[in-house]
């Protein structure tokens, strides 16, 4: 009998002749939590898709052993039957179905005659959630009634219902609040105590350090090291990931903001589902030339709604006056905003940033196609030259600009969306959670790009849930709380405590 529940030996996976995985070995013991670390594009998600049957046996080289026996799964259903369940970064829930229906999706309990046994499913769903210490969820309500934190836990309940022996969590906390992350980590501790084995993928290395027993690092599709967490630190994990010591997480600032060039006045947004409620309540602020303005606040404070209204993409009713160099800008739609010189990289790249059916290059140039058009014809050589230039400038990892954008890692998709907006040559650039799901090395590159743009005179508004990030790159910080402006701070010896106190305090008067 093997000492290991899972062994992956010499795994090789190629796409169009390019090796995404190049002979990776992994061993996982039963009841262990393994942190899988690597930069964007290192091969983490590809490796887990091989393991979970998304890429079936025969489409890769190498061997997988499960509980000592060869595993040659040709589908996800086969790996789930064996007890291997993956929870993807993008949750696989059907919003309109109930919590119970989502937990049993594909594994429904039926009565004689084929009707669904809702009583049994609802009872079992409640039992599963109780095991996870979740008691404030009504399992008969649509899952869309619950926020990201609850939905993530519902996905875990769904996995436990499939009798998961190995649970793969891919960026499970990317859209969770601090308190929700604490609950998630507590639940993983509970699962470990019950003998459930976990593979945890996250760019939040403090979580990895808190929850994992062993760290497996991969870089450029190759296995770098397997190390007990007790011998590691966050700094050592970073060094293994990027192949060098990172002495600083944020680049040194070398730009000085100029005069005020941009003003947003009386921005007010009403809740689309409850028009009596204001999500943003009469917020006004200014922005200097070449300034990086951070917007901080708790989840639900109204930060995304604020910048969406300024850009003209807020889904509900809103009011916003936008001025550039004293002239009123009409930004009632994203297209109008882009044409005036205002661009935005949205928070949800999957739904609002990329077009999944198009290639990497097509996604990058779709907002500026008129630059390459001559009559009714697109100059494809000129377009490709610009695309290759952008891929080099942003250090975007792709085997080819013609590959589907969905084949890229999340961080590289983010760079493509950023490139799309930069090609519009904006005067003002809004970045909503620009480094969500992005690794440490790529984060540094994005911060460096932001500082370079600021030194060229482009003004940047950055929304971020990470206070450390806001303080690391911003010249000035606005704090939003319950839709109101609660603080406007110059970032000079500013602390996370000051920002958090402002977010929780009364509005400024």
Automatic annotation (TrEMBL):
Membrane topology for this entry? Peripheral membrane protein
The protein's superkingdom reads Bacteria
Q: What is its main location?
A: membrane
Any one annotated GO CC term: plasma membrane
Q: State whether keyword Cell inner membrane applies.
A: yes
Q: Carries keyword Nucleotide-binding?
A: yes
Q: Where in the cell is it found?
A: Cell membrane
Q: Which residues form the ABC transporter domain?
A: 6-245, 262-507
GO molecular function, one example? ABC-type D-xylose transporter activity
Q: Which InterPro entries match?
A: AAA+_ATPase, ABC_carbohydrate_import_ATPase, ABC_transporter-like_ATP-bd, ABC_transporter-like_CS, ABC_transptr_XylG, P-loop_NTPase
Pfam families assigned: ABC_tran
Keywords (A to Z) from UniProt: ATP-binding, Cell inner membrane, Cell membrane, Membrane, Nucleotide-binding, Repeat, Sugar transport, Translocase, Transport
- The identity of this protein, by name, is D-xylose ABC transporter ATP-binding protein
């Amino acid at each position: 009998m093997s000492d290991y529940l899972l062994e992956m030996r010499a795994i090789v996976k190629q796409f169009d002749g390019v090796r995404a995985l190049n002979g990776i070995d992994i061993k996982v013991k039963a009841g262990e939590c393994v942190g899988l670390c690597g930069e964007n594009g290192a091969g983490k998600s590809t490796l887990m898709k091989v393991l979970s049957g998304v890429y079936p046996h025969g489409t890769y080289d190498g061997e997988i052993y499960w509980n000592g026996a060869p595993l040659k799964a040709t589908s996800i259903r086969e790996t789930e039957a064996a007890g291997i369940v993956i929870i993807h970064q993008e949750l696989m829930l059907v919003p309109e179905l109930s919590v119970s229906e989502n937990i049993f999706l594909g594994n429904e309990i039926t009565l004689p005659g084929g009707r669904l046994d809702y009583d049994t499913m609802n009872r079992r769903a409640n039992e599963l959630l109780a095991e996870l210490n979740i008691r404030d969820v009504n399992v008969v309500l649509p899952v869309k009634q619950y926020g990201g934190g609850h939905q993530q836990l519902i996905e875990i309940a769904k996995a436990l219902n499939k009798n998961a022996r190995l649970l793969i969590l891919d960026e499970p906390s990317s859209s969770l609040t601090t308190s929700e992350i604490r609950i998630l980590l507590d639940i993983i501790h509970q699962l470990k105590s019950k003998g459930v084995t976990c593979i945890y993928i996250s760019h939040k290395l403090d979580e990895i350090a808190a929850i994992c027993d062993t760290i497996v690092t991969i870089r450029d599709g190759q296995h770098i090291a397997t190390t007990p967490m007790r011998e590691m630190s966050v700094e050592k994990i970073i060094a293994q990931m990027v192949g060098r010591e990172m002495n600083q997480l944020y680049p040194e600032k070398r730009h000085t903001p100029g005069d005020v060039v941009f003003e947003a006045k009386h921005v007010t947004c009403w809740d689309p589902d409850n028009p009596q409620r204001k999500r943003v309540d009469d917020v006004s602020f200014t922005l200097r030339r070449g300034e990086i303005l951070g917007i901080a606040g708790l989840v639900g404070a109204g930060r995304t709604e604020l910048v969406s209204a300024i850009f003209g993409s807020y889904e509900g009713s809103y009011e916003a006056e936008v001025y550039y160099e004293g002239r009123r800008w009409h930004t009632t739609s994203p297209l109008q905003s882009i044409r005036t010189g205002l661009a935005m990289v949205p928070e949800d790249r999957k739904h609002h940033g990329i077009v999944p059916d198009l290639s990497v290059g097509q996604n990058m140039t779709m907002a500026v196609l008129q630059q390459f058009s001559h009559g009714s014809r697109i100059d494809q050589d000129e377009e490709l030259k610009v695309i290759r230039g952008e891929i080099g400038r942003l250090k975007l990892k792709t085997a080819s600009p013609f590959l589907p954008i969905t084949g890229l890692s999340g961080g590289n998709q983010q760079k493509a969306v950023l490139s799309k907006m930069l090609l519009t040559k904006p005067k003002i650039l809004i970045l909503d959670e620009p480094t969500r799901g992005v690794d440490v090395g790529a984060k540094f590159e994005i911060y460096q790009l932001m500082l370079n743009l600021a030194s060229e005179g482009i003004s940047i508004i950055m929304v971020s849930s990470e206070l450390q990030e806001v303080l690391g790159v911003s010249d000035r910080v606005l704090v939003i709380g319950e839709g109101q402006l609660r603080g406007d701070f110059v970032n000079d010896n500013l602390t996370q405590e000051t920002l958090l106190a402002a977010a929780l305090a009364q509005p400024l008067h």
